[in-house]
TrEMBL record:
<dbReference type="InterPro" id="IPR051100">
    <property type="entry name" value="DnaJ_subfamily_B/C"/>
</dbReference>
<keyword id="KW-1133">Transmembrane helix</keyword>
<dbReference type="InterPro" id="IPR015399">
    <property type="entry name" value="DUF1977_DnaJ-like"/>
</dbReference>
<dbReference type="GO" id="GO:0071218">
    <property type="term" value="P:cellular response to misfolded protein"/>
</dbReference>
<keyword id="KW-0812">Transmembrane</keyword>
<keyword id="KW-0472">Membrane</keyword>
<protein>
    <recommendedName>
        <fullName>DUF1977 domain-containing protein</fullName>
    </recommendedName>
</protein>
<feature type="domain" description="DUF1977">
    <location>
        <begin position="22"/>
        <end position="103"/>
    </location>
</feature>
<keyword id="KW-0143">Chaperone</keyword>
<dbReference type="GO" id="GO:0005789">
    <property type="term" value="C:endoplasmic reticulum membrane"/>
</dbReference>
<dbReference type="GO" id="GO:0030544">
    <property type="term" value="F:Hsp70 protein binding"/>
</dbReference>
<dbReference type="Pfam" id="PF09320">
    <property type="entry name" value="DUF1977"/>
</dbReference>
Length: 111
């Protein structure tokens, strides 16, 4: 994602050559990475608005991925029942939904 005035400021969820510096949201432990000139361009209310926007994108992405993980797990369970495949059923039961877990963790920290 690019934000900024005269020259673009790079902001990403993962470290990249253009955004090597790690920051954390004011009220969460979720890291995001920014470019060299980030602190010169962003402060105060603008920084809070930016963090809110980045955090909303992150949570929206987690929701979408959680939905996909649940659908995949439910699909595996359905196929396992339909074909009577006990191995597939066990694998589906053990299938993790990491985005859902992270979303629950974030939701718990909000409340």
């Amino acid at each position: 994602m690019f934000f900024g005035g005269g020259y673009p400021t790079m902001i990403d969820r993962f470290p990249l050559p253009l955004c090597p510096r790690a920051r954390h949201f004011t009220n969460r432990t979720v890291p995001y990475f920014v470019g060299e000139h980030f602190s010169k361009e962003w402060s105060g209310g603008h920084l809070k608005n930016l963090e809110r926007s980045v955090e909303e994108d992150y949570i929206s992405n987690l929701r979408n991925n959680c939905w996909k993980e649940k659908l995949q797990k439910e699909g595996m369970l359905y196929r396992a029942r339909y074909f009577g495949d006990s191995d597939l059923y066990e694998r589906a039961q053990r299938a993790r939904t990491p985005s859902c877990a992270k979303l629950s963790e974030i939701s718990a920290s909000i409340h």
